[in-house]
Amino acid sequence: MISKFPKEFLGKACLSIYSGGTPNTKEQSYWDGGIPWLSSGETDKRYITKTNRTISQNGIENSSTRLGLKDDIVIASAGQGKTRGQVSQLKIDTYVNQSILIVRANPDILNQRFLFFYLSNRYNDLRQMSDAHSSRGSLTTKLLEIFKIPLPSLPTQERIVDILGGLDHKIELNRHMNATLEATAKAIFKSWFVDFDPVYAKMEGRDYSLPAEVLDLFPNELVESELGLIPQGWKLVALDTICSVIDCLHSKKPAQQDMGKLFIQVFNIGDEGRMDFSKKYFIEDKDYTQWVSRIEASPGDIIISKTGRVGAIAQIPNGIRAALGRNLIGIRGKKDYVTPQFLRDYFLSNLMHNQIMNNTSQGTILESLHVKNVSKFRILLPSKSLIWKYSEIIKDVHHKMENNDKEIETLTELRDTLLPKLMSGEIEV
Questions:
Q1: Residues 319, 368 share a domain
Q2: Rounded Cα distance, 152 and 3, in Å
Q3: What secondary structure letter does DSSP report for 423?
């Protein structure tokens, strides 16, 4: 799309563009010092509010790492898979590694938020530019300096930021709400089905903050099992006893269409058990018929990835039916044993995470998870009445998260549709 705005080299519109470094990982005194340090893989988040690792002052002084300031833009200059070209904005001060470029706009001519929105929409262009100019396929400071950006007047930039920023704020607010709701669901599940808090309370004669009719569903005794102590009457069963476990087809991936039937792939598995349909892959009806011959992914089904992001888990939300793509396993609960709510939260718990890690085979190239191993995962199964009561209590939480996800998807599509039109001047503000 041709821009109505004048263009400028990014290097001329910024105060600075630079990369960081990594302290020696073998020197323990350089690490875990409480000072944030960002790696390129963490740019999969739109906004950086915390980092996975911290470094010490000693690590800073003995490495080439450099400090990024709050509101700076960070771009992954290298990294595996889809990492290179990812753009985030810092919400904290943090040091960065050598595979991150920090970009700081000149506020006299360029609004930092305007630049963030523009660069975040140029992911493919950034990757193509680095592929064309670097044998290693990495973005460099020099390449970024000659990257051209539109440069409308500052008042126009600010009006564009107000529009896109309002949408972004609502999207992030929904994500924070979902994080709180997810933490609530996890806390209840862990208390009831992992730590057995109500059982211990009954054994010790303590009051417990549950209605009597719910507390009565828990036993008052623990018994020995292969997992250690478990509540009396609860059973250890194989997953395929209570669920249908169905492998994907191993056929050639069908051709993508502009419209058609939905074909789920590994990249559609989002965070915290939720699907991510910000990118959709459609296929023809005849291909769909073939790919749903084993299972048509339907609301309540669990899907789990076998390779790549091994053990990534999500649940199909209401209103979605789709074909299951390559490297995915479908898991459908049997109604006589489990509910979709219980199954989802079980799969997101440490009870399942540990089994996935223990059953992941180390191949010569990729880690993988075999469907036969998944079928035999051990499930600690409470009484049916307790499973149903848990689901009754937690279903409103799941429903709110699902509604928030739908709103996030709608707002994201609106933002991403408006963004290039605003940036080019096609829509005047």
A1: yes
A2: 10
A3: H
Q: What are the b/e assignments for 407-420, b being 16+ CB within 10 Å? A: ebbebbeebeebbe
- DSSP code string of 9-29: EHHHHEEEEEE-----TT-GG
414 lies in some domain: yes
Report the range of poorest mean pLDDT among 18-27, 131-140, 262-271, 367-376. Answer: 131-140
Q: How many independent structural domains does the chain possess? A: 3
> Taking the alpha carbons of 372, 374, 377, 380 in that order, is the dihedral positive or negative?
negative
Asked if residue 368 has pLDDT above 80, the reply is no
Mapped onto helix, strand or coil, the DSSP state of residue 412 is: helix
Cα 396 to Cα 390: distance, rounded to the nearest angstrom = 11
Q: Residues 265-290: what's their mean pLDDT?
A: 92
More confident residue, 271 or 2: 271
The DSSP code sequence of 95-119 is EE-TTEEEEEE-TTT--HHHHHHHH
Q: What average pLDDT score do residues 154-179 get?
A: 96
CATH number of domain containing 307: 3.90.220.20
Q: 144 and 157 in one domain?
A: no
The 10 Å Cβ neighbour count of residue 80 is 8
User: Would you state the structure tokens that stand for residue 137, as one six-digit string?
Assistant: 């396929």
- What is the CATH number for 164? 1.10.287
Query: For the segment 173-200, what is each residue's pLDDT rounded down to a tens digit?
Result: 999 999 999 999 999 999 999 999 999 9
Give 345's Cβ-side CA count (13 Å radius).
27
- What is the distance between the terminal CA atoms of the chain, rounded to a whole angstrom? 18
DSSP class per residue in 340-385: HHHHHHHHTSHHHHHHHHHTEEE-SS-EEE-HHHHHT-EEEE--HH
Q: Is residue 327 part of a domain?
A: yes
The tens digit of pLDDT for each residue in 52-76 reads: 999 999 999 999 999 999 999 999 9
